[in-house]
Design brief:
Length: about 280
Amino acid sequence: MKNRKYVFLLALIPFLLIAFLYEIIPLAMVIINSFQPDAGGGFTLENYSTVFSKLLYRKAILNSIKISLLSSSAGIVIAFLGARAAHEHGGRLNSVFMTVLNMVSNFAGIPLAFAYMILLGNAGFMVNVGKEFGISALADYNLYTTNGMSLIYVYFQIPLSTLLLIPAFEGVRREWKEACTLLGGGRNVFWTRVGLPVLMPSILGTFSVLFANALAAYATAYALMMNNISLLPIQIAGCYTGEVKIRTGLGGALSVTMMVIMVIMIGITNRLSRQFQKGVVRK
């Protein structure tokens, strides 16, 4: 048994090596660079001062948080309804639904931005339909704004969150529904009093994944807006690929700021999840 244990540990070495080389070392270098001037050498907080004092970077932080919260909230609500439908209705239709989810979950980045340009751009198909039939919501839709881009983020949040929530619904037992019905409670009573409290830890965990996914999204936003919108991933990329000079210190400070925002959100959702779990156990 001991020999088998050591064999399993040896099997982990390639994974640990890859994690060390491609995750831990780059992360440490980003943090170290964030406290160094671009010229190199010494210790400074100038990069963080620039991040929180310059309007461009403050706006990037606010825009990224806003889009991440809006898209994650909308995505989790729609995903809950979709996962619930998949849980309650099995058969061939459910298999088709899962196939479509897996397909659209990989449709992101530049192709997604191009698709939205065709549909909702200034001369897009849906915009022209709105002008033709007098639908102001479509005719006046401006894709090239923060609110307009939120719709794109919602699109790629829905399949991801649905795929993450569907397994969680397997924990909702049919016996609980039958017991609720026997006690005089309807479907709405069951989901508000039993289903949602049980699923809430999974919902909160999925929300934190969606928030991190939206906060770090880069390709779609850059393909659609280039540098015309201030978002954290775009500003970070600009620091490392700038045409004038590379600003590794500022890019590191922005990267650390993004990581701190993610950690705060994960901490909040984990704490809420533990509270819901304690509440369910007490009940």
